[in-house]
Write a structure and sequence with these properties.
single chain, mainly beta, three-stranded antiparallel β-sheet, 11% helix, 36% strand, globular
């Protein structure tokens, strides 16, 4: 079976937010789909290991922030490669309050849902949410998963439903140990300023390792 075939399926890049008690938290996903139009119903797939999964289960609500091509890629690093069990992901992030839920201000749109059903798989929960609020925030084009990989050059979190192990490459490369971003700039990595930071997760140069 050639799993690379799955890359031809269409995905977006979204931040799913929910509540840890009264605190907002969230994670990055790429599997969001509209199921029906009336009543408007959305399905989202969340890994069992993601802290956001249990928060949606408890609160019964979630919001979808639709990232655009102009959105700060650091949002993906913050929400996709760190755990809400350990940090306050919304601390310092420009967010809008939509009822009890926080949505990303630097997104092109948002959708707020109440959970009406769910389905369990071996690794993920598929939550079905009835839409209770939605709006456009910016006229920018929504970021596709293909754009994220080809232009932003981001990597897939291992908890993502579309994660595939990368093929072995013998070429020397510098890789961020936090999010997996591969530096491919024209300046040799060793010659970069010590102020250099990973464009995805904003970690310092010292977090990169040579492979």
């Amino acid at each position: 079976m050639n799993t690379n075939t799955f890359h031809n399926l269409s995905y977006g890049v979204y931040i799913i937010s929910s509540l840890d008690g009264s605190r907002s938290t969230g994670c990055v996903v790429n599997s969001v789909m509209q199921i029906t139009s009336s009543p408007a119903t959305i399905a989202v797939s969340i890994n069992h290991d993601n802290f956001t999964n249990s928060c949606i289960e408890t609160s019964g609500t979630f919001a979808i922030s639709i990232l655009s091509e102009a959105s700060d890629p650091g949002l993906i690093g913050r929400f996709g490669f760190q755990s809400g069990r350990e940090i306050d992901k919304f601390n310092g992030v420009d967010a809008l309050q939509k009822g009890e839920l926080s949505v990303i201000a630097d997104a092109c749109g948002y959708i707020v849902c109440k959970v009406i059903n769910k389905m369990e798989t071996s690794t993920h929960t598929i939550f079905l949410g009835e839409v209770i609020d939605a709006d456009l925030l910016k006229p920018d084009s929504a970021m596709t998963y293909a754009y994220y990989h080809k232009i932003v050059k981001g990597k897939t979190p291992k908890n993502s439903p579309t994660y595939l192990p990368e093929e072995t490459n013998t070429k020397e490369k510098w890789v961020c140990s936090i999010c997996g971003y591969i530096y491919d700039g024209s300046t040799p990595f060793e010659e970069l300023s010590n102020e250099y930071k990973c464009p995805i997760c904003k970690q310092p140069k010292e977090k990169f390792t040579k492979q």
